[in-house]
Amino acid sequence: MARDTRDRILGALRVVLARGGSSAATLEAVAAEAAVSKGGLLYHFPSKQALYEGLVAQTRASVEAELGTLMHPEEVVRRYLEYVAPRDEHERGFILALINALQETRTGSGVVTDEPDLSDVFGQIFAAWEEPVRAAIGDPITAEIVLQVGNGWYLSAIAGLRHPPAEVLTGTIDRLVSVASAAHTPPEGPR
């Protein structure tokens, strides 16, 4: 029950961030969206900082859980590219708002706090994908191409640059998976 409430609150934070940006993500707004009292929210997350830390931890855990289920090199490459290509304005809005919110919780009123530094959360999440992608491909050049394409898509999305149409994005992912699969060098076994 408590886990369900925590997850509902974190889901509400995602919705509020995507809908109204970091300035709209007040404790009251998140509590209302989650259909809990402000006291109920504070029971699970004693501060706004703790709320964002919870969202970051949930995001990290989701990536790690997904990585644990991927068995074939092609799956790793495909899921990475799908993960880094925000597919709609709602997701793009959430990412932008989360970046702004993490920056605000880190600096408060312009003074760096003693709170944990959450500003590099996206760097940490991308780093969680890096080794599995490199290992899945084997060839360092092809792996770097795939990783940099993913980084470019992600940064383009949050910068508001033109995103390729869905069919082009899907075709590009398919092509990169094919190239990565062809470049895959399985680890040498015992001789």
Radius of gyration: 19 Å
Gross morphology is elongated
Beta-strand content estimate:
under 5%
Number of helices: 9
Oligomer designation? single chain
Q: Structural class, from secondary structure content?
A: mainly alpha
Number of domains: 1
Distance between the termini: 53 Å
What is the average per-residue confidence, as pLDDT, rounded to a whole number? Answer: 83
Question: What string, H for helix and E for strand, traces the elements in order?
Answer: HHHHHHHHH
pLDDT < 50 stretches: 109-116
Task: Indicate the percent of residues in helices.
Answer: over 70%
User: CATH fold name, please?
Assistant: Tetracycline Repressor, domain 2
CATH homologous superfamily - what is it? Tetracycline Repressor, domain 2
- CATH class descriptor name: Mainly Alpha
Number of distinct beta strands:
0
Biggest sheet features: none
Do you know the CATH architecture?
Answer: Orthogonal Bundle
Q: Could you characterize the architecture of this molecule?
A:
With 191 residues, this protein is mostly helical. The chain has one domain: Tetracycline Repressor, domain 2 (Orthogonal Bundle), CATH 1.10.357. It contains 9 helices and no strands. It has helices at 2-20, 27-34, 38-44, 48-69, 73-84, 89-107, 121-137, 140-159, 166-183. Helix 4 (48-69) runs parallel beside helix 7 and helix 7 packs antiparallel against helix 8 (140-159). Residues 109-116 have low confidence and may be disordered.
